[in-house]
Amino acid sequence: MNQLVFLSLLPVVLLIAIGFIAGRAGWIRTVAVKDLSNLIFLMLTPALLFRTMSHVRIEQLDFKPVAAYFLAVMLLFAGTLAVQGFNRRGAVLALAATFSNTVMIGIAMVSLMYGPQGLVILLTLVSVHALVLLTSATLVLELAVVQEQKQQGTLDGPGVAPRHAVTTVLTALKNAVLHPVPLPIIVGLLFAQTGWVMPAVIDKPLELLANAFGPLALVLVGVTLAFTPVGRHWRQALALAAVKNLLHPLLVLGLCYLLGVGGLPMVVMVVASALPIGANVFLFSQRYKVAEELVTASVVVSTALAMVTLTLVLLLVGKIA
């Protein structure tokens, strides 16, 4: 099992290391990172997700593992809010403790380790991961903003527009669906239900784009690490990374056991929960202007720490599965 874990993680580690070296050496400059990110998220990601799900019938999908995953997320999110307090900082840190990098690292890693069957299980989670978590986080953050404004006496004051929870939820829901991750999954699933066969002239370019996703996504992770300073927040970042990388998968593992989820679905859910903090958390911290440096440092530490923690988690589930 040790050799299997090593051989599975080695390509991931090497690709990230290549990206890190390229960034440090100046082969890829900071100005190019945004363009690389757009290439991956707006072209390669939709191609991979649509092509994978275009062969999957809805009756083949199993949402029981996803239920175990999100139950763990709810417990951890609520627990973080209880410790940090119901405010913008608490909400952003709760999102950081529960939001995995399921796309850039997760899809590439699970595809390499478990093949198409494991990828379908992961994409079942990915299809609702951003939708549920980002919508929930947006609602909590907006409510926290309202509460802070009430405490400061600025709610509905001059120049301050009232915030309506229903509008907030609907807007967040629309933004989460019209996104380069959930949308191609939904379209791919709808196409699969028709029973049609993708013409080769369309399928082949999609296949080439999809095959390029994994290596480029992991290289971009390394490039991003090369340009992101950890700074004075490393202790707090390490604590938050430990919660995300270790406590989160342990909760998912326990709930999978209680709900009778085993085999490959359990393994994929635990691996998904052990993935480092996703970049969307940083975008939320920027948008709401809270804990920006801490979240940036946490993403870096969580990603670097994942090299060790993912190995430990894989060894653990390998003995149980």
From TrEMBL:
Q: Does the keyword Cell membrane apply?
A: yes
Q: Which family does it belong to?
A: Belongs to the auxin efflux carrier (TC 2.A.69) family.
Compartments (UniProt record): Cell membrane
Q: Which residues cross the membrane?
A: 6-24, 36-54, 66-83, 90-114, 120-141, 183-202, 208-230, 250-275, 295-317
Task: Tell me the organism.
Answer: Polaromonas aquatica
- The principal location of this protein is membrane
Which segments of the protein form a coiled coil according to its record? none
| Keywords for this protein | Cell membrane, Membrane, Transmembrane, Transmembrane helix, Transport
Question: Cross-referenced Pfam families, in alphabetical order?
Answer: Mem_trans
Determine if Nuclease is one of this entry's keywords. Answer: no
User: Can you name this protein?
Assistant: AEC family transporter
Specify the protein's topology with respect to the membrane: Multi-pass membrane protein
